[in-house]
Amino acid sequence: MKNIFLFVLILASSLSFGQIQNIVEPEKIENQFQKNHLNTIVFSDKVVSFENMKETDFLKSITFQEDKDFDVRIFMDNSLVNYLHQLDPSLSVEELIKKGNYQFSFFVDGKLIYIENLNLGAGTADQKKFKTSFRIPFLSSKNEDSWGKYLWMRFYFANGGIDALETGNHLLKIEIKPYLKTSTLKVGKTIAQGEIQLNIPKKNVSEDQIAIQKIKPNNGWKVSEDKFNQEKIRLLNKKIAENRFRDITGIVVIKNKKLLLEEYFNGYKRDSLNDTRSVGKSFASAFMGIAIKDGYIKSENQSLKDFYDVKKFKNYSSKKDSVTIKSLLTMSSAFNGNDEDYESPGNEENMYPTNNWVKFTLDLPMTENKMGKNWNYFTAGVVLTGDILDKSVPTGLKDYADKKLFQPLGIKNYQWQFTPQQKPSLAGGLRMKALDFAKFGQLYKNNGTWDGNQILDKNWIKKSFTNYFADNKDFEGYGYLFWRKVYKVGYKNFESYQSSGNGGNKIIIFKEIPLVIVITAKAYNKPYAHSQVDKIVQEYLLPAVYE
To answer: How far apart are CA 478 and CA 480, in angstroms?
Structure first.
């Protein structure tokens, strides 16, 4: 019995020892500064080369300014791959790199504000294998591009950092751990941490910037006399003026069919034509509904073979023949296209450089996904709906859209984005005044009527505002080129369907309450673009104008 116990003890010790062995040989730690600061994060207000670092370069406190450098340097006693190897010794180096990275935790004044498992694509394979020290430029006076810049944006703007770091003195602490995502998430011990005292200076804004903007005449709407929480709106205006909500250009609120709030920021005005990017996709849904109502298209259940000789295009399959308009409207067509996957053949960035966007789409291969079941954001599919419309309606889509939608709504000043064939692109880029976008939203709220005219079929709106992916837990839902979003205020939920575009642009139509909200913004490709707008709606506008 004693021999068996001894054997088990030796085996356990051997396994334990094997688990902490390096899977690769990391770079040698020879820099004396690094030796003195192992497992530490240090902070600086300037860019310092690794070879020339001195103790005086790194700070315990700093006056935080967004237009200045804010650098961190991480010193570890091993490389990332070796830390990951300790979490799962059965995986190869390549598997570890594909499934793991660093986890960052941000604390302000001792309170955990944000945790992020860094995207697997951040950092190179060699850095992950060998480096024991690396620099992260959170803020750069030279606008240095790096994953660290976007990590900081996500913490600061999108996940509560800017609210935690109000005017005054605060202690910012950062911890770094390795994480590995296989069938479960494994997180290792802290491999580096550091803290710095941040002095956040007061931002001076004028009363004019905070004041609620008066609604000027000749706006095309009846003006509401409803009361609203003015202090809440003043606080929102203050945060926009302080650049705590950034790149917001307009806010319009329609309540009970009347204009309740109309404000513009950052140089934009009532007559400004806003580039709302993918907000235009929802117009594709409207045009399709109008064309079906008019009989130019039989129904959204028609398939591609009714409009194209699909066999003439690459990667033909009978499955491609049977792709329906409905599957294009719900982004579930099973084409091999996903804008959120840079390696996807049908990613929109692969489409734009081509000279024929429709051919690009029809040439794409199909996936094994079942049509109508798997949702992937697929801009090229919306381009295809535009071409189907252009082929089907008299005199083409441009004239049809103007005659059937824009003129009845009194929308006179707008700009299309065009495809290489000079057809209106329904991928996005339709420019309009904020008040005109509000008309589009109110049309849906009116169940398709405007000034007594039935522009959209009521049943089409019901279909458009149906969640076809209720079993998908990754997002809140999607209809006919409208996003589903539920806002929570106190104990109440407010369901909406909305047009949404890059930069934080929104037309929000609430299902159960008489409210339409338009927000225009230009935070293009910024990680905080949509989250800050959702916060504006949930924490300021809804409580102010409805509650």
So the answer is: 7
Cβ contacts of residue 114 below 8 Å, gap of 6+? 104, 105, 106, 154, 155, 159, 160, 161
Q: Which of 277, 275, 286, 271 lies closest to 431, judged by CA? A: 275
One-letter amino acid at 330 equals T
For residues 140 and 69, the answer to whether their CB atoms sit within 8 Å is: yes
pLDDT at 408 > cutoff 90: yes
Instruction: Give the Cα-Cα-Cα angle 374, 378, 380 (nearest 5 degrees).
Output: 140
* Residue 329, number of CB atoms within 10 A of its CB: 26
Model pLDDT for residues 196-249, shown as the tens digit of each residue: 999 999 999 999 999 999 999 999 999 999 999 999 999 999 999 999 999 999
d(CA 157, CA 530): 10
d(CA 312, CA 242): 56
pTM for the structure as a whole = 0.91
Q: Is 41 in contact with 174 (CB distance < 8 Å)?
A: yes
Packing angle between helix 280-293 and helix 379-392, nearest 10 degrees? Answer: 30
Spatial strand order in the sheet of 515-521: 258-264, 248-255, 515-521, 505-510, 492-501, 483-489
CB 439 within 8 A of CB 451: no
Q: Which phi-psi region, left, alpha or beta, contains residue 396 (left: φ > 0; alpha: ψ -120 to 50)?
A: left
In terms of Cα–Cα distance, which of 426, 437, 421, 446 is closest to 520?
A: 437
How many CB atoms are located within 10 Å of the residue 520 CB?
30
Report yes or no: 481 and 329 within 8 Å, Cβ to Cβ: yes
| Strand ranges in 8-132 using DSSP code E only, listed in sequence order | 40-44, 61-63, 70-75, 100-108, 111-117
Reduce the secondary structure of 57-92 to three states and give it as a string: HCECEEECCCCCCEEEEEECCCCHHHHHHHHCCCCC
Which residues lie across from 63 on neighbouring strands?
A: 199
**Would you tell me how many other CB atoms lie within 10 Å of the CB of residue 63?**
11
Cα separation, 144 vs 28, in Å, equals 28
The H or E element that residue 496 is part of is strand 492-501
Per-residue pLDDT for 123 more than 60?
Answer: yes
∠ CA 98-99-105, nearest 5°, is 120
d(CA 364, CA 514): 42
Asked if residue 323 lies in contact with residue 304, where contact means CB atoms within 8 angstroms, the answer is yes
430 near 415, Cβ under 8 Å? yes
Reference 310, options 335, 280, 332; nearest CA is 335
Q: At what angle do helices 434-445 and 280-293 cross, to 10 degrees?
A: 40
Integer Cα distance of 514 and 430 in angstroms: 26
Q: Which residues contact 399 (CB under 8 A, 6 or more apart)?
A: none
| Digit-coded pLDDT (tens) for 282-333 | 999 999 999 999 999 999 999 999 999 999 999 999 999 999 999 999 999 9
Distance CA 251, CA 213 (A): 11
Handedness of CA 432, 437, 438, 444 (dihedral sign): positive
